[in-house]
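Posted in: Structural Biology > Protein-Ligand Complexes

Title: Requesting predicted complex, pyridoxal-5'-phosphate in pocket

I'd be grateful if someone could produce the 3D structure tokens for the following input. Sequence and ligand are given below.
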Amino acid sequence: MHVDLRSDTVTQPTPAMRALMQEAPLGDDVFAGDPSVNALQEKIAAMLGFEAALFVPTGTQSNLCALLSHCQRGDEFIVGQMQHSYRWEGGGAAVFGSVQSQPLEHQADGSLALADIEAAIKPDDAHFARTKLLALENTLGGKLIPFDYIQAATALASQHGLSRHLDGARLFNAAVAQAAITGADARTEAARIASCFDSVSVCFSKGLGAPIGSALCGSRDFIARAHRIRKMAGGGMRQAGMLAAAASYALDHHIDRLADDHALARRLAAALSGIEGLTVEAPQTNILFVDLTGAARDKSAALVQHLNDKGVQATGLYRLRFVTHLNVDAAGVDYAASVIRDFFKA
Ligand SMILES: *Cc1c(COP(=O)(O)O)cnc(C)c1O
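-- Reply #1 --
Done. Output follows.
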């Protein structure tokens, strides 16, 4: 058996998604003439309550367009140490935009302490970069950031005149997890989260299962600025409608099923609990972290080799990450758990 739990980016388009891609009406999106791209942009903007949206090839480019549209040269954005837009994007805002980041440590639940945010906002003084933006991420490492916290942090940012950006690469995982708490619909929860922000980026190529693409949402003016950055970054795509059609299909058919991925992550966590040397975090969405502790740490390289030999793919060494998605099922998760159990029995 082969079980790929490295990331939810490994998902393959389903036959129904491929069929829709095949039929998608196409045009040249650089002339704003691709009907499928235009339809997707309107759909995601409306879903999340924004005036406009921009289809971009990657989540990284989406965040870059957002940061450079909110901030000018010499401005700064407040961000968490572990957020993608700070840690995992090659420092793009600094490299391409001369925009400084002000990273903060996360609290245990993934949030940034309100006092830390407030302390990081610089007064208008020639010594300091101009603090312009608060950037949050939800989910963060699979954690659902509590909604009341998001309301408080974004309100604080507004009081200080900052704009607010959400890296919602996995916004719909957050929305599905939040819906399980509130009893509301996942789309309603996604829109509620989005309503706290001036801009939101979402990935279609992760748990939603589309092959490529993200969208950046915001006001018409903001998206006009982002459009210019996208062009400079080389992200103006031509007959991109085939990709937009896949994303549109994902929005119609793959949101509610994210609950299945979350259930599979809990199933894997349960199957791994009680193994000596493993600390299994309780997953809130589709990402499970397992830490190797004590003597088990000495076996980490051997464990990774064992997993590879048995066809189970994950990331990490002392802190293993397993991500569930559209292309794994209960049998796959049970197999992965049995492979790990066997290793510690031997
Ligand atoms: C994956 C991811 C991105 C970037 O997406 P790419 O399409 O891989 O560039 C941005 N933010 C978060 C939180 C992500 O998980």
